[in-house]
Design goal:
Elements (H helix, E strand, L loop, with lengths): L17 H26 L3 H24 L3 H22 L7 H11 L2 H18 L6 H37 L9 H17 L5 E8 L2 H8 L1 H18 L5 E4 L4 E7 L3 H17 L1 H5 L4 E7 L6 H17 L5 E3 L1
Helix pairs in contact: 1-2, 2-3, 3-4, 4-5, 4-6, 5-6, 8-9, 9-10
């Protein structure tokens, strides 16, 4: 059995996500790129466009700072996407077709900030709107060139962003999922525990509990039935647990035959009932029972100011108590 001490207990600043880098890069570059034009418009006393440019500089700068400080990306990303199209559409409306060049970076940015299908629909609507606004300002040939070039940009951006998101999802699953059982892996468990502990230190009124399960005499099961059958048992065990836990609970593979359920917003009494329910469901599973599979369970509620290591350690000791009491039972830290 692997020691709980291997759980990462670093409280350094969280790493920047891909979404944070995208939003901070786009907002920062936009703010710096538009700033010189806002100054030029002020110097030329082109007040309407100057106000629009200054608004864009301030808004994108604020979005950059917000994401930098809070690490939140969902709402800032949406704001940045709609803001970009609003500024471009307004600029074209005020200054005419000479400002159409700004639509290309705005279209590309949309597909990095919004879901690909939504970005595609909005982009088509904006392009049609620009065509209506400029119908008396450009020739048929100019309109044809604009729509062909902007359509190609839209299609390329859609294809690239869709592929990028699919690959990102696959990489995330590889990095956080146990390849055999599909449960969260040890890395995902460590990160989740750190997140829960950080949340508990801010919002202690919402309890959180941890349930550590170990398959009893699993080595003997492997020796009798073989490792291939042992893998089948682990898969069946995870399926049985997933069928019993709530949608808000998270299941992770901690070690070879050790698994952890993190139950957020769950009191100790509720966690005890859940742990007993999980133990009973494994005992009553006909296929698992044929192979003599039972589990020993340790449960611990998070207590204020303890570390993730200490929390997991208490549930680990409770699980060992269950082993000492004859296995196939639950103990509480």
């Amino acid at each position: 059995m692997k020691s709980a001490k291997t759980v990462v207990e670093k409280h350094s600043a969280p790493k920047r996500t891909t979404e944070e880098f995208i939003i901070m890069t786009l907002s920062g570059v936009t703010s710096l790129a538009v700033l010189p034009f806002s100054l030029i418009r002020l110097y030329q006393q082109d007040w309407a466009v100057a106000v629009l440019d200054i608004f864009a500089v301030v808004a994108t700068g604020c979005l950059f700072c917000y994401v930098y400080v809070t690490h939140k990306t969902k709402i800032p990303g949406q704001i940045l996407a709609y803001l970009s199209l609003f500024v471009v559409f307004s600029t074209v409306t005020l200054k005419g077709s000479q400002q159409l060049m700004w639509i290309y970076p705005a279209l590309t940015a949309m597909f990095f900030l919004l879901p690909s299908n939504l970005a595609g629909i909005i982009s088509v609507a904006v392009l049609l709107g620009l065509g209506i606004v400029l119908r008396h300002d450009i020739t048929l040939l100019q309109a044809l060139v604009f729509y062909i070039s902007s359509g190609a940009t839209l299609i390329f951006s859609y294809a690239f962003s869709s592929r990028m998101r699919k690959q990102q999802q696959q990489l995330t699953e590889l990095a956080t999922k146990d390849p055999l059982t599909g449960a969260g892996n040890r890395r995902a468990l460590e990160q989740k525990m750190l997140d829960v502990v950080a949340f508990q230190r801010r919002e202690s009124q919402y309890p959180a509990s941890l349930i550590l399960m170990d398959l009893d005499n699993f080595k003997r099961v492997n020796d009798i039935h073989g490792h291939a059958k042992g893998d089948d048992i682990l898969i069946a065990f995870v399926n049985a647990i997933n069928n019993r836990i709530r949608i808000t609970d998270n299941l992770y593979r901690f070690g070879g035959e050790e698994f952890v359920v993190i139950a957020e917003n769950t009191s100790l009494k509720e966690a005890i009932n859940l742990a007993e329910d999980l133990r009973d469901s494994i005992e009553r599973d006909e296929w698992l029972a044929e192979h003599g599979v039972t589990i020993s369970v340790g449960t611990a509620k998070y207590t204020p100011n303890e570390t993730a290591f200490e929390w997991l350690g208490r549930s680990d000791r409770a699980m060992y108590q269950a082993k000492e009491r004859g296995r196939n039972c639950c103990c509480v830290a």
